[in-house]
Amino acid sequence: MSALIPAWVEGVLTPVDKLAVHRQGLRHLAVSVFVLRDGMTLLQRRAAGKYHTPNLWANTCCTHPHWGEDNLSCATRRLAEELGITGLALTPVRQIEYRAEVGNGMTEHEVVQLFVAHAPPGLPLSPNPAEVRDTLWISPIDLHEALAARPQDFTPWLRIYMRDHADALRF
């Protein structure tokens, strides 16, 4: 069984199984983090074993708060779990809502808090291979060019963030 995450059921925020949330396309809470360094952002390529959007490039990390977990704690936890990143100050920059099909009959309908963190040079990374296949530091110009040339290589939410909310990321 997957984790219980906060989702709206009949207008009430309720703990719901994560897989059920995505299969039913329920509106739910999420966090997304962009780690920035020297005018570049850290992307991750999702692991091949992910239940949706495997092998696609995404922002530094994104996830869903556990039931009862606040957004900042969730984002901090997930940076450590996915990439071994600790000790960065996370700044909330915008809350957005989007809906996107993510494959395998699943839908992300997220109310997501975007966070930005600034990394020092030489930030150590220790990607969890169950979560992350690869990482890449990329400039905003190169990212926009890659998104235009090969959108299918990127998660739907990263495409949405860069199209509609890049101004909030403060590269």
Overview of the molecule:
By secondary structure, the protein is an alpha+beta fold. The chain has five helices and nine strands. The longest helix is centred in the middle third of the chain and has 13 residues.
Task: Give the helices and strands, then pairings.
Layout: E1 4-9, E2 12-17, H1 18-24, E3 27-37, E4 40-46, E5 57-58, E6 61-63, H2 71-83, E7 90-103, E8 106-118, E9 132-138, H3 140-149, H4 156-164, H5 166-169
The number of helical runs is: 5
Proportion in helices: 25-40%
Q: How much of the polypeptide forms β-strand, as a percent range?
A: 35-45%
The separation of the N and C termini measures: 38 Å
Structure keywords:
single chain, 171 residues, alpha+beta, 7-stranded mixed sheet, 25% helix
Quick take:
This protein has 171 residues and is an alpha+beta fold. The protein is built from five helices and nine strands, in the order E-E-H-E-E-E-E-H-E-E-E-H-H-H. It starts with a strand and ends with a helix.
